[in-house]
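Methods: example folding runs. The two proteins below were folded one after another, and each record is reproduced exactly as written to the output file, sequence line first and structure-token line second.
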Amino acid sequence: MSAENGRILERKARIFNVQKYSIYDGPGVRTLIFFKGCPLRCKWCSNPEGLERKYQVMFKEDLCIHCGNCIPVCPVQLHYFLDEEDGEGPRHKVNRSIDCLGCRKCESVCSRKALSIVGSDKTISEVLEIIQQDMLFYLNSGGGVTLGGGEATAQPEFATNLLMECKRMGIHTAIETSGYAKLDSLLMIAQFTDLFLYDIKHIDSDRHYELTGVRNELILYNLTELIRRGFNVKVRMPLLRGLNDSEDVIRRTMEFLQNLKRYKNFQGVDLLPYHKLGINKYKQLDMKYAITEDLSLKEEELAKIEKIIKGYGLQVEVIRH
């Protein structure tokens, strides 16, 4: 929402979820707004439904009774029957080569709730209405609103105006970001952001590309600029055994952060151990989950990493979902 010639302009963003009562995404009790669309393709992503900006059909095959009610109502013929070789008869499938229009007609006729459409275009007023429902929780806990995704900075105008309205209402604001965005967009958002939760997924750019599909030079540059310009930033490090948890990688990351330690607005490091939350979503989207092993770290391994980071004089906390 912004003012232009005395008029209020209502913006829209594509959102795929609103999570209330979150305690992992900034201080206190928070409302987490998930933006759809992300420039990265992290192999371990727990929100695959947030990667693409487009509407998507999530299909829970175990709930489907293959009634076919969804087939005639879909205007683009996303749904179809396929004869299975096991002799059980035609089975419902989703044609992923066709883009969903987001009409939700199939969702409305599915009696077993096997179909759900991911993505909803919300105005700032609509999102604010949801946020305001929990004002008491924010006040009592020191919480607020966090923008996540996907990647909120991929829809920077909406993110900026939403955060601006939150600040006008006295709500603490935070944003979870990969940092892979234009610096101008980040600085625009930063005017109304109390805290950046900023990912460093791997310190080596080549390895970062292998794991996420993008290099990290822009990410590290933007991180440095945000801190240098006085904005509050907490670095978040997802940890996966064998991918980015080695002592060499941790120490190289800390050596980079040493240059930023002198800034009081740099608020330390959160460690995010690998978890398997979200794996079932890949099947519902007919996507392949790239990680085949359990890459979780043991408590003693996490403790060792914590000790290394503390040795560099940095505050560190393990965030366990």
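Second run, written to the same file directly after the first:
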Amino acid sequence: MAHIIVVGNEKGGSGKSTTCMHVATALARMGKKVGALDLDLRQRSFGRYVENRLAFMAREGLDLPTPDYRELPEADAATLAPGENPLDNRLSTAVAQLETESDFIIIDCPGSHTRLSQVAHSLADTLITPLNDSFIDFDLLARIDPETSKVTGPSIYSEMVWSARQLRARAGLKPIDWIVLRNRLGAQQMHNKKKVGAALEQLSKRIGFRVAPGFSERVIFRELFPRGLTLLDLRDLGVENLNMSNLAARQELRDLMKELRLPGVELNF
């Protein structure tokens, strides 16, 4: 059985697709077979990222480790069970097709609450929730008292994850390993960073997730997308001397992969 990694929250612009692509490519570079799905059927940022990579490799005559990206197959109305949701059928069919061929399946969810996202969360062995380091994004996870900064209760996304955990428990599946990723950490605003960090640590104990540092705000991530590249590809392109920012970003990816604690994964980059 493939290990399913779901990357999601209900807010756009948190770095979900960048996280998906870098985790998927890192695993592929370790020799793992990686399947990939994008459930944002309109914007398809992850899907476009992979397509850009394939197009760049074709132009340059390169063969870089790449996840096996699939579109969701259309549901055949004649084969749907009575009352079966067509979206459920499309996702389950795609996962079943990839599962026999993959060590890992990475699923990128849209930045909104959808039926596909809800079902995907219930499939997650590992759930990664990238979060911009601000209380605007924190509100997705929990409500907070503005005077005391104390957490007063879970919010909409946390409740969806709780429902997914209950579904898995009833099905006899292992619990979701949930990691909240602090993305776009800036060098400034140290006071705000400390307050957000303290609130996340408090909340993690209440609703059961691990907090991990993610990717800092760097120009390199915006520059890599049009060619479908990741930090790990730069040396294959002849970039031997990485600048300090690129080296730091590469270390952030290494730290993330280590923190995910994925089965059978030994870092080699």
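Comment on the second run: The first strand starts at residue 3 and ends at 7.
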